[in-house]
Amino acid sequence: MTVFRSVSEVARPCAVALGNFDGVHLGHQAVIQAVLGRPGVPTVLTFDPHPREYFSGRTGFLLAPERERSSQILALGIAQIVVLPFDERLASTEAHRFVEEVLVEGLRARFVSVGWNFRFGKDRLGNTEMLQSCARAYQFDIEILAERQIEGQRVSSSAIRTALASGDVERARLLLGRSYSLEGEIGRGDQRGRLLGFPTANLQVSERKFLPGDGVYLVRAHWGSQRRWGLFNLGVRPTFGGERRTLEVHVLDWQGDLYGQSMKITLEHYLRAEKKFASVGELIEQLHRDRDQAERLIARGI
Ligand SMILES: Cc1cc2nc3c(=O)[nH]c(=O)nc-3n(C[C@H](O)[C@H](O)[C@H](O)COP(=O)(O)O)c2cc1C
Ligand SMILES: Nc1ncnc2c1ncn2[C@@H]1O[C@H](COP(=O)(O)OP(=O)(O)O)[C@@H](O)[C@H]1O
């Protein structure tokens, strides 16, 4: 077991990266990797739900819901993750008590890394200066990672959301350090795709997950031991008067049954906006053009 819900069973002492780390983008990766090679078990201390979900009651903005975030963190070489339930008790814990009870007594932190703008504790009164004075008092080392910029823009979860909302998957990839991905089980749709000559697997993603802008994307689809190219349509299917947003993947050059499988797709290129066609025939013609364009992009390495 490497993901814990409390500090009671963790391996100690710890070298701790502390933060929300939504998306585990390049800035987060620097904070997390700062613990590697430090004294103590490499550990990430984080929260779920995201404090913003807790306080706003809103959902649907996470770049990586909990399971996805944990696997991205473990892939960086971290030994254990402590995911504290963010609830009323935690929200009302004073910053200095959080340091004492969680970092010092709970994790026996020998080293702590945080990002330059990290805030924590009741009313978000805990900040990096306060952590620095705690480090002196409790004798742990601390590293505060400076703001990361790429091409003059701050690397941040909100900058990534803005890029994805406009279909700019290249910019999102630059800030994330990997392609944006969506994952879920394949469910049943309206059984219409196969009649169009383009069967589509309907991906059911967490309602907490941030969705990029509607449109058609070139993706890599991963399921079981398969890795294939696909066309991904995200939208309401205006040609059929749809209102509910669906996520559909047509796997290129492949046939088989996907119902019930877990699939992950990574967004590689935005092809076009979703359109309302005057007839099903025109939609089918466009689907053929989409496939041709995808094949050209794949052939030239995108
Ligand atoms: C690559 C691709 C592009 C698509 N583009 C559009 C579009 O522009 N407008 C639209 O109304 N539907 C679009 N669709 C959605 C089709 O209408 C949808 O796949 C079809 O209704 C089948 O739905 P089903 O899987 O629920 O049977 C697209 C589907 C794919 C795979
Ligand atoms: N190349 C393919 N890409 C995606 N799904 C495919 C493909 N070939 C066969 N399938 C199967 O067909 C199903 C989709 O057919 P479709 O008529 O669009 O039905 P539904 O509306 O239930 O998604 C997929 O869930 C999968 O099991």
From TrEMBL:
SMART domains documented for this protein: Flavokinase (SM00904)
Catalytic activity as recorded in UniProt: riboflavin + ATP = FMN + ADP + H(+); FMN + ATP + H(+) = FAD + diphosphate
Gene Ontology biological process terms from the UniProt entry: FAD biosynthetic process; FMN biosynthetic process; riboflavin biosynthetic process
Name of one Pfam family that matches: FAD_syn
Top EC group: transferase
UniProt GO molecular function: ATP binding; FMN adenylyltransferase activity; riboflavin kinase activity
Keywords: ATP-binding, FAD, Flavoprotein, FMN, Kinase, Multifunctional enzyme, Nucleotide-binding, Nucleotidyltransferase, Transferase
RNA-binding recorded as keyword: no
Pathway this chain belongs to: Cofactor biosynthesis; FAD biosynthesis; FAD from FMN: step 1/1; Cofactor biosynthesis; FMN biosynthesis; FMN from riboflavin (ATP route): step 1/1
EC number: 2.7.1.26, 2.7.7.2
Family, as annotated: Belongs to the ribF family.
Protein name: Riboflavin biosynthesis protein
Species of the source: Gloeobacter kilaueensis (strain ATCC BAA-2537 / CCAP 1431/1 / ULC 316 / JS1)
Designated gene of the protein: ribF
